[in-house]
Amino acid sequence: MATNYPELRLFIGGEWVGGDGRVLQPVLNPATEEVLGQLPHASKADLDRALDAAQRSFPTWRAKPPHERGKILRRAAELLRERTETIARIATLEEGKVLSETRWEVGLSAEIFEWYAEEGRRAYGRVLPQRASGVRMTVLKEPVGPVAAFAPWNFPIGNPARKIGAALGAGCPCILKPAEEAPGSALEVARALADAGLPAGVLSVVFGVPSDVSSYLLASPIIRAISFTGSIPVGKQLMKLAAEGMKRTTMELGGHAPVLVFDDVDVEQVLGPVRVLEVPQRRAGLRVADPFLRAREDLRPLPRRVHAACACAQGRKWAGRRHTDGAAGARPTPRVDGNLAGDARKNGARFHAGGERIKGTGYFWQPTVLSDVPNTARIMNEEPFGPVAILNPFSDFDTAIQQANRLPYGLAAYAFTRSSRNVNLLGEQIEAGMIGINSYAISVPESPFGGIKESGHGSEEGIEGLDACLVTKFVSEA
User: Fold this and answer.
1) In order of start, what are the domains of the chain with their CATH numbers?
2) E strands within 262-312?
């Protein structure tokens, strides 16, 4: 096992719980396939302890003044920044991102905590105008209760932070189940909060078979809200379970993000390795939800640029090992390889670069660029969790909008244009929860992060993220 990887534990009721007597799951380094550590699965007794701790801590945590809750969140943010190198290296070992990306994610998580530390002080109600003398009507915002949060492996630091931050900032305890593929990162976020003085029981972190843990937690009347990031089928199943207890849900599900490139921009700049492949390389194996780039310009110069970018990525080194942004865990590679890439070939797609797994140790997939991909291909209809970019041309604005809105997903979309009219129309007509125009940056702590249609509902981050953990109460006093 790796000597620079922490011992993995559960965090329940303020205590770090080891693996004695529990089912253990090996955690692998996706770049080397070596075993990093053994992750204990929570037993039913462990889950009961986490639920009991959340229930017991709720009255005191909700009663703690918001500025006092904020002090703990701000101190945790400071600790995250102080521990950036340690946390970033843990995330890189278990998730596969390059260090520059995991360092950025630590900083983002610290900002999220700071945002909720302040926004928790602004969970305002309001006083309504009187309808009769001596009658006062007020609207109050109150914590919803214990929150069950389920985070995926693609942002192993940021996803836990945004879910925990919202719950704690609103005055709610949280039980977090991070991804078993990248557990150490989430545990470091919990450690920062514990060291910052978070009362015991307000946060628990558990692991296990996802369906077993989620069904057990959601069946408990103690849980009053759910925050889930993951696939659409799993999200729908959790909503069914939540409906049995009328629990509110925030669902950030899959997408299939279009990128529209209009002919009034410098296409070479947009399609160059720095800007086009920034998304597939920076988030390889994450949510590169098939950015299909559409432009009228001739695409023949593209392969030279793409091959240069791929060669640069494949040659990157870290800790003496071959490392590219394509190393992101075992699950996405077979999906791109055996299913979507092969199906695209059968449907006549042109492969300009990549399209295969990189031989050797580790879960590496070549950054892949395709063009002339028909809508009948699965990759044009299903989310490819891998470093894939698709380029198809469009002839007019209406066609571009029709193609962008063709699928039942609506998480994110992007467009590049210099036309102010296009900008206005794109904002009005694209069906997505987040739209980046002339930019791929669509997530900051103060902005809502979430999708529409089958990509989910509700938002994390921003005032919307806090509101998801609050209930509204009307009080009429005569």
Assistant:
1) 10-253+455-477 (3.40.605.10), 258-444 (3.40.309.10)
2) 292-294
Residue found by looking up tokens 């703990």 in the block: 72
Read off the DSSP letter of residue 88.
H
Which tokens go with 403? 């193609």
313-332: b or e for each residue (b if 16 or more CB lie within 10 Å)?
Answer: bbeeebeeebbbbbbbbeeb
| pTM exceeding 0.85 | yes
Write the pLDDT tens digit of every residue in 286-322. Answer: 223 233 333 333 333 333 333 333 332 333 322 322 3
CA distance 82 to 79: 5
Helix H or strand E encompassing 252: strand 248-252
**Which are the contacts of 287, defined by CB distance < 8 A and separation ≥ 6?**
154, 255, 257, 385, 411
In terms of Cα–Cα distance, which of 265, 337, 342, 275 is closest to 306?
A: 275
Q: How many Cβ atoms from other residues are within 10 Å of residue 35's Cβ? A: 13
Q: Beta-carbon neighbour count of residue 268 at 10 Å?
A: 12
> How far, rounded to the nearest angstrom, does the alpha carbon of residue 396 sit from its chain's CA centroid?
33
